[in-house]
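Help needed: design a sequence for this.
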């Protein structure tokens, strides 16, 4: 006997990305904005994996308001971004000539929803 479950295309994350713009800002696609539930009143905390220096991922936590530990979410047109130029400059990322795009996936970390 076989039991099939059909996958609904609408249930999949599509084009859920964050991209570093040439200005150093981290911009979010429309689907990422929906997934992270971004708006101008929220902030985004950014972390790196200190146990694995080869891990080039960034880990995000969306917080309800901007704090000293969070980047403020800003809006330009229909899209949201965070001003991350000083961060990427400190990490010596050449976002002007190189292209950086990150897939956004959610996971649980110490009881907190992370991306």
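Sure. Designed sequence:
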């Amino acid at each position: 006997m076989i039991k099939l479950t059909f996958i609904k295309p609408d249930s999949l994350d599509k084009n859920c990305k964050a991209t570093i713009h040439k200005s150093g800002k981290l911009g979010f696609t429309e689907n990422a904005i929906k997934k992270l539930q971004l708006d101008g009143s929220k902030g985004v905390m950014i972390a790196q994996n200190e146990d694995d220096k080869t891990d080039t991922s960034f880990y995000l936590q969306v917080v309800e308001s901007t704090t000293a530990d969070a980047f403020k979410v800003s809006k330009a047109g229909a899209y949201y971004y965070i001003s991350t130029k000083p961060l990427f400059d400190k990490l010596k990322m050449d976002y002007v000539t190189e292209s950086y795009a990150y897939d956004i996936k959610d996971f649980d970390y110490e009881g907190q929803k992370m991306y």
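The mean pLDDT is 93.
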